[in-house]
Amino acid sequence: MAWFEEAVFYHIYPLGLTGAPHENPYGEPVHRLRSLEPWIGHIKSLGCTALYIGPLFESVGHGYETTDYRRLDSRLGTNEDLAAFVRQCHEAGLRVILDAVFNHTGRDFFAFRDLRENRERSRYRDWYCDVNFAGNNEFGDGFSYTNWGGYDLLAKLNLRNPEVRDYLLDTVRFWREAFDIDGLRLDAADVLDFDFMRALRHAAREVKEDFYLMGEVIHGDYQRWANAETLNAVTNYHLHKALYSAHNDHNYFEIAHTVRRQQDMGLTRGARLYNFADNHDVERIASRLREPAHYRPLHVLLYTLPGVPSVYYGSEFGIQGRKERWSDAPLRPYLNLAELTAGDNPCLSLIRALGRIRGGEKALSYGDYRELLLTNTQYAFARGDVLVTVNNGGAEASFDLPASSAYRGALSGERALEWGGRIHLRIPGNGGEIWIPEGERSAAYEPVQAEWKPEAPTPEEQAEHRGQPRRAEGKPYEEMDIEELQGEILAKLAANGPVTDRMKREVLENVYKNSLLNWVRSFR
Known about the structure:
Layout: E1 9-12, H1 14-17, H2 37-45, E2 50-53, E3 57-59, E4 66-72, H3 79-91, E5 95-100, E6 104-105, H4 110-118, E7 147-148, E8 151-156, H5 162-179, E9 183-186, H6 194-207, E10 212-215, E11 233-234, H7 237-248, H8 253-264, E12 274-276, H9 285-288, H10 295-304, E13 308-312, H11 337-341, H12 346-360, H13 363-366, E14 369-374, E15 378-383, E16 386-391, E17 397-402, E18 407-409, E19 415-416, E20 418-419, E21 422-427, E22 431-437, H14 440-443, H15 459-465, H16 482-495, H17 501-508, H18 513-521
Parallel strand pairs: 1-2, 1-13, 2-5, 5-9, 9-10, 10-11, 12-13
Antiparallel strand pairs: 3-4, 6-8, 7-8, 14-15, 15-16, 16-22, 17-21, 18-19, 18-22, 20-21
Helix pairs in contact: 5-6, 7-8, 10-12, 16-18
């Protein structure tokens, strides 16, 4: 079996975690990557077996406007720093994959610089898509080109150009030789050329046994990318959305439907989709959940449903993080590991326990998935001989399931006896449990928090979970953030009469500060 089939990933956005400047000064290297060395032991303590880290290479700002594919970003250090970091990960038993940004480059990449300087005479004019010297772009270069996502900062590479393809494949070989990496996460894989991905898969087989290719794909038929000819896996955004919304809406049918659909496509076995609760592009799961206690059943599902689980740095501590209109910086913060690990943290205890269970139960990687019970608030399924039960309701729930042996809860230590081919299980409100057949295996797990007791949310957090933005009385409107302005508008509407659901929705869906400022000033 390949190592990634039973992996548990940890995901780091290094420019954020190390506190690097948002803009690259292109000065002398600053060895910030070395500050991540203490995180290696922490990652191991979670039961993770692989690290996805990136972007890493020289870029202008957030890391995806690549300037040099073969040089560590100078804000992080030198190539020697990266080689040493990967070596330490390997010594700790961690595989390492990094971001491969092959769809586009930044404007400071050597080929695009030559295009700007030499225009029609540039030998790199065909390295980019749809270059038109009769057009223009937002930087006034006097030519246009296809970009990514509407941003001229990101110039789309022509992956059908043999020179471009060979350059990128040679870059993968360079990364393997220089850093001994174990795989790649392909940025924007949903818009990459399929012939290029097939060539990359062929090259991957040459550079290293079990070299892992995982692609960022949001929507669509995942089989198009995750198959024997292109990629090993893709990001499971379908399940990501179902995980948080099924809890917020008390609707486990959404998760079960998602798993069934992927099971019908054959994606729950060979493809091993990359499952996650959050990442560097979406809001932290602790900010997504309306009920903080749902952190427990959601993560029980993350670690037990078909696919490979991943934890985004910091979310094992239950930290918050919301997107801003023009910035993802709140999702990618600097964190102090020593401060975070001081004292008890129920989220951290849970993730460590789930990591131990996942590592000890091969059925959670290879076992067949069988749905056993499903209601809006209760969900039970088997992975091989392991049973999983979750409850998103506030009250205790009972599960009566088929079984041929006694079981013990790996999280709670609770025993459940089989009687007449059935087993009766009880799950606390907002709870989840992984049931192991009683014996040596189940005895290996120490109980961790039989009941989930999260810290009481602040009044502001309570209002936020109800969908009611916080107020900021006494603060000038110009200094308020989006949620504070929304809160002021709702308060003023309430002072003038009943606030309907439609009125409230119109306020909450307006995330434009200038519009909200004009709105709040319109009240007399």
